[in-house]
Amino acid sequence: MTDEEYRAGVREALVDAGVDTPAMLSWCDAALQYHTLGEGAQEDYDALTDRIHSLEEQLEGPGNRIFYLALPPAAFGPSVEALGEAGLNRAPGWTRLVVEKPFGTDLGSARELNTRLHTHFREEQVYRIDHYLGKETVQNLLVFRFANPIFESLWNRNHVESVQITVAETVGAGERAGYYDRSGALRDMVQNHLTQLLTLTAMEVPATFGADAIRAEKVKVLHSVSPVVERDVVRGQYTAGEVGDERVPGYREEAAVPGDSDTETFVAIRLEVANWRWQGVPFLLRTGKRLPQRTTEIRVVFRRAPVSIFQRYPSCQVHSNVLTLRLQPNEGFELAFEVKTPGEGIELATQHFRFAYADVFGDLRDAYETLLLDVMTGDQTLFVHADEVEAAWRLYAPLLDSSPSPLPYRSGTWGPDAVEKLS
Ligand code: BG6
Q1: Are 100 and 82 in contact, with CB atoms under 8 Å apart?
Q2: Are 346 and 258 within one domain?
């Protein structure tokens, strides 16, 4: 693209987003430049360096640089090295490096990538993206837990029976099948997004609301998880079926997926966080593609009353109180509790206290708006630290090494029946 072609694309995006104010449009013309890096040879980086230097000469203050690497995984290491060797890692002002997922494919490759990154960039300059951390509702987990002591005092093994973390998707591997088939649900979703939700749900209160304090508590959770064993895991792969009204093909029939692929599109894992707060409480992590409904939620199931005084009424089943934090869509939370159904005798019904973000605050902003702004302001709180990414890979290492064939499940269902054995 030429500079002008690039700007035209951005102008169109501004119009689509309804933010095409005169100030934005003139910013677009004055500020945006486009430069193709070619094959990424060192002379390509030298040309980029010259262009950046000539732009920085026109600035009034010192130039700051953000390199945002949204690249095929194999290109991360070489690109970072080339940036470093061209001297682009040292701006007159500050320089930051944003790295998209996937960050490695296992512990060894993540470590190697960290080493390559750290040869040219300090950890304080590195922003590893997990876009789940940019979601308002995920950030709200910390507020929900640590600004509402009524919940926090119940948030432990004495009162919680189980925690279920679900990220269900209706989409299939589709156009990303080429990448997905080499990755699978465990690498694509569990090691990062679900593990982030696990750590935010299980962590202790940090000493401050700062990046280092929060990350340290999250890493401690990962170190406390008992080794994951194969019998606590169910892998699945979708076959043809219906999602809503749509008839969809099976995973092995997707273009770019080999007909005998054993890549899992569904994983359920039962984990235990073996520390004082959580010992004995099962955490069930579950994610899959082509499930009946798109939903991300955390369900905290509280222990039932030890003895039911209503048991002499045959129809009186007392259910657990369940707190459901809905992260997307229909963001908000609900708390299930029992009430007496009006009328003679005693009959119970489950009802809910509900809070919906949309009712109070309208639309929520996109995760990337939050994350990219944080990169610009230099706030690393919502980014994944080197230690954290390695601890997460270490946790799943035994499962990555063994690869039993996934169980088939029909598209539009909640995964293989074998999941029942985990609950
Ligand atoms: C990405 C995964 O990180 O997250 C995709 O690579 C997945 O496979 C996506 O579909 C889900 O993100 P969201 O924000 O739609 O829940």
Answers
A1: no
A2: yes
